[in-house]
Amino acid sequence: MKIKTFLLLTLVLSVSIMLPGFAAAVISTWILFILIRRATPERDRGTLTGLLSAALLMRLALFIILQYLVFSRGMTDIFGDARDNIIQGTIFADYFRGEFDIGRVLSVDRYNTHSMSVFNGLYFLIFGMDIIFLKYINMLAMLAAGWLIYDFLRRTYSATAGLTACAIVLFWPTLVFWSITGLKEAHLIFCLAAIFWVIRRLADGLRWTEKLLYLLALAACTGYTVLLKYKMMFPILFLELVLLACYYILRNRRTARARGRLVFFASVLFAAGVLTFHGLVFQKLKDLYGVVFSYYVGSLNTLGWNYVIVPPDSSQMYNPAFIVKYFAGAWLHFLAEPFPWHMYSPSLLSTVPEMAVWYMLLLFSAAGLIKLKRRGKIADFVPMLIFFVLYVSSLGMSVANIGTVIRFRDAVMPITAILAACAFFEPSGRTADGD
């Protein structure tokens, strides 16, 4: 063993006795970079490692500044939601030690119980109340998401587009900011990137043991994502699964005539089902629409800067013109807020540079979508496109707060970056292994 390696290991082990979280951070970073280097083609290895290293160093510098401000004010995090996540994590840690029963844990009404709370609890159980390195995991999650985005595009379009999309995601200002706090956005983006990446890998020729491992990973990421925000993510991912199954059934028909027959029979069965169960079907849809609208009205009544898509008048909510205006307004505001005339505070004003780039990114993503269709490359992007439509529609129709929209929108920002990168480059035409 080289003397430098020996001294480094000795230092890490010595510090680990006092700070086990530090050891976890060092070892996790080392493992992540080793895995990424091994899984990245040699010609992209240096560039990608440089991007990830620069992104990590920038986050560490900003994290030190932010944590100084947080500690100087006697807080655990700058965001209320992040503080709640940490407090809920300590409650779960006590539950794991046997100090609470599960009923008492779930009865704490102020804090949202979700999968990240459980994750935080397990971390506190193993490493103690080490908030610093708990937040460091968010940085690693965002780096891993960047690599997944790169590798997805390398396999489906081109490595150059993958590097471009990875760089956009790694250095996107709000994504940098969320990843140095205790918020769950980094976990959400990583899981979504992993879901789309695994779906793409399952399309390759794999052995049954490999497919089983990928399916287990898909189940784990999907379950974790759903439990991060159950009311929001469960219906979205459930509909995603149904629509994706329908798409693959149609795609795997060998001829256009076979697809036509399948669509015809499916339409007949659907029509028959609607006629038979029309009361139940339409009532369920009506109930779901009512729930979404009630969330929107509730969001209008929250503190902060809100916008009005439609008047919160329940007597008009089932009017077709009202629904069309509601749906169109949801997409417009979700994708475009804050508008230049909605810069009500210094924090919103600080988003002006990012929003200017975001508007351009939306235009390039539309161009990328058209290019994918023309180049016959759209099939591999269907899962994320379905998710994008469902996510924007449901969240756009249930949120009215500008700050909340900015955070929620960042979950699909990587999809926009992927499509925009495709607009800049042509597909490589090479295999995944050779790209």
Spans of 5+ residues with little confidence (pLDDT < 50)? 431-435
What do the pLDDT scores average to?
85
Largest sheet: none
β-strand number = 0
Question: How many separate domains?
Answer: 3
Strand content: under 5%
Task: Label the overall shape.
Answer: globular
Distance between the termini: 35 Å
Assembly form of the protein = single chain
Helix content: over 70%
Secondary-structure element string: HHHHHHHHHHHHHHHHHHHH
Overall SS class: mainly alpha
Tally of individual helices: 20
Give me the Rg, rounded: 23 Å
Quickly list its features.
435 residues; mainly alpha; 3 domains; 76% helix; disordered C terminus
